[in-house]
Amino acid sequence: MRNYIKVLTLFFLCNLTSCSSNSFQSLWHPASASARELKNLSVVLFVMSFIVFTVVCLLLFLALKKDSGLFRLKPGNKFIIVSGFIIPTIILTGILIYSLRTSVNIRSGSATGAETLQIKVIGHQWWWEVHYPDHKIITANEIFIPAGVPVNMELTSRDVIHSFWIPNVQGKMDMIPGVTTRLGLQVDNPGEYRGQCAEFCGLQHALMAFPLVVLSREDFKVWVKKSSPKKRPILSVAAIEGEKVFFKAACNACHRIEGTEAKGLAGPDLTLLAERKTLGSGSLPNNHHYLSRWILDSQKLKPLNRMPPTELTPEELKFLLVYLETLK
Amino acid sequence: MNEKDLKDFERSWESTEGFWGWFSVVNNQPLGERFMVTSMIFFLMGGLLALLMRIQLAFPDNTFMGPLVYNQVFTMHGSTMMFLFAVPFLEGLALYIIPLMIGSRDVAFPRLSAYSYWVYLFGGILFFVSFLTGSAPDAGWFAYTPLSGPRYSGIGIDFWVLGLGLVELAGIATGIELAVTVLKLRSSGMSLNKVPIFAWTILVVSLMIIFAFTVLLVATFLLEFDRLLGMRFFDPSGGGNSLLWQHLFWFFGHPEVYIMFLPATGIVSTIIPMAAGRKLKGHTLVALAVVVTAFVSFGLWVHHMFTTGLPELASGFFTAASLIIATASGIQIFAWIATLWGSRPVYSTPFLFIMGFFLIFVLGGLTGVMVAVVPFDWQVHDTYFVVAHFHYVLIGGVVFPVFGAIAFWGPKITGRLMNEKVGARSFWLMFIGFNLTFFPMHIMGLLGMPRRVYTYAASLGIGQHNMLSTAGAFIMGLGVFVFFMNFLLSLKRAQTADSNPWEADGLEWTLSSPPPIYGFLSPPGMPSLEGAPSKWRATVITSAMEGKPQAIQWLPGPGHIPMLTALSTLLFFMGLLTKLYLVSIVALIFTVGFISRWNWSSEDELGKSDVTKLEAATGLSTFPAGSQSPSWWGAVFFITVLGMVFSSLCFSYFYLWLNSHSWPQDGIALREPSGFMVATAVLLFGNAPLWWTKREVRRRGYRFLYTSMMVSLFMSALALVLFLRELLDMNLNFQQNAYSSSVFVLSAFNILLVFFSIGSGFHLISRLWAQKGQWRYPLLLQMQITHLFWMFGAVIAVLTGGVLYFLPGVIG
Q: The whole model's pTM is what?
């Protein structure tokens, strides 16, 4: 039995220390004041649990031990009440106070000011619709924010319940149809993190993620300028052909492109598609290879998503890709 | 008792032989066994589903299963383990062992246990049949709306809702059964503070079931109304609210955890004293802790909803409640340590499982405290951290004690000892496999792996952890396999068990292994029932608190009525599922018919000479009435269930109201109360003659009953017509908005109760008529119970009127 225990302990230690994994979707790598508060709270809770667990195991070990001077100890009701009720109550009260303090800190840390950036995110099966109401920018499946600026997220859903979660930055908040919930974010430094839907929302709940890109204030200004509604550029001949393909294949039934007749709302907005880092809501890199495969048959890449396959000749696909390239 | 009498006595407890006889069994022991075996089969099926999931998740981007199948598999895994395994197994164990523990011959309502077994079996089959249609339920075991609503899910959810409805029905029926058994069928002198701790936990849990399961039953029905009839309870676009489901579901769901866990602590508190060879230390404290846990568990449901944007203060309250419950568990844990202190226990298989429970559960409890801390929960909610947490609690806290219980009471039930060496090996395989499977999940959660995903990206760096977890799952599966092989082989060749192989304490160990079907020939400390005629099953009932013998209770013998009633209940649900409503209506008529036949038993009546003889020999009445009678208690609990249905409907009504801009919604005018008031007044007047007769019947005899019942029935029928007219006059379109849906359902519930009252009154009067006006004593009990229902119906009518007609005017 001793050996078993040794093996097990060794295993757990290895497991605990093998945090060789990601630093972009992990609450163990905080990138904001809130996330740091949350990590500190977690550390305190883990340490508390570890101590309590060790003490209980030790007591059990002593209770089962065959020969010990402690035998004369005859634990009765007093022992049960002190160690089972009084001590836990003290520990738990401490935790309760610390936890309330943490929530207050997080709430006050995300207080809104004049500078606050408003972003509205609407959950869909299985993608994210993103609005910057102050800048009239509509995009999807990725969020750009400036570093060091408080951001107020307004969250809701168009269909079922989703949950908005970027572990490095903030705890999660549900997106509920018919209800608007709020979440404050403020990230210290530029960088890229990953958010993922955390409430089971149907078939493709697993592949519903998005990158959160944190830019410096200056870069963010540039981004806003670049992304704000503007006149469509003059298209090349190939791109004009591609636009025709876009409408012929009825892509506009579901997708919207600012400044064109494409006004569909069922799928992600494509106005800034060429700038986007990912396809299929954070599930694939956005490059020519995946984009063409996605258009022809996205079902192979993200099974049972809502986009039907499109039948295009190689020629048409080529033109369409040229056109989509202009969406930035 | 001479030899011939003994033979006759034994024969009177035997079941009918042959194929059809198998369907007519009502004895607690075979039914308990069936519950346990069936739920274990479901456990194995749920376990296989878990292994499939672990195969899919072994590697990142694995394609073993697609999202469709995976979602079905994880939904069925969760639902099976929660609904088809844990509670039914514990109820089965209780059905078998509780009468033996408390010195009774059977449970209080033998036919009800048969009914609940069949209903449970049918519900479970309905669950799994959905796989054959290719659309198994796929919205998770929690089935959050609107995902589980009509717009976003298919027929799988109907299977889920209706199968669950049946299983819940069985759960509630068995809950009532066990509560009354522990309260009324204890042996003489076993006052309530002296019941064995396992029986105590079962009593507490049965009461919890009555409250919690009923809420889920209502929730699933409302969901099915949304799905089948187009009501709008959970539809935000129709004034409904998708969070209403979460409130109702978790009001059930959180106590559910303790409904599974508390009997398991009862098992632990039984096995530890056996291993320590002494009595449980702090017995009173432990019993108290169980009650505190039960109470507080109903105030915890919101701690599953910390991420829905609730107000801070509410969350803080629920954190505090969650922490209180932790101290209640602390009491139990240290009571067990105190019991074991310096006792040099023998490491038998049951004790090993309990020690496994101990370590795993403490860890699970600690992570439970962690997730109850609101800000921490914002991060780990719906991640693998939570998956790890509740598997530590449920496998550690329920499955390990259940396996310990099988090893412990198995020899009592089968009469064969299991192999200790193999038992220890199966334990170690399960224990190590379990920790390998679930410990890494804590870390996966911290590294950002959400729950309920069929795949994950390699870049998350959690591939190794998942691989380990999958390997562990197979080791644990092997452990389960070894355990069951050990059990099955022991049936064939192991050595036979004597009456007390563990040298444990308790009445059940004074009987042979396996015990005779009737339990105790003469229950300890009880008046001898030797005067009873041989074909007459009976047990002694005692007072609920002190355990003083009160009367002799007749118990029904084998019959097909429970199975037939269950079958027609199934048909009713199947009709809804396939939208063949005619089938449902016919099945409902049959169900009502079977139930009235059920209550129409004349076998309970002895000849006059037998009565005199028996009453003289025992000094006890053979006609318990009023609060002496188990049936009266059963009726009170049943009324509690109905009251809980009404409360849940009112909760939904008020919750929807609170979250609406206007009430009634969409500018519907609030209806004048006059029509409803007249109907209620007629109903109340109809109650009066029955009330008066009930008071006078002992003094003036039965003659009044005819006339007064006729008047009562006539008035109630009139009230029924008036209520129905009122509902029709309202001109409600229940598909319009949540207001209309909830008003419709509340009114319909009221009408249903009036209908039900009339039915019970009619049943009473026709029994009297069938006896050619001959008043017989058992009718007194039926009359008391009928009267209870009538009073309840009247109260509900008044409340319904207030809620629907007055409050919106007063507050709105």
A: 0.95
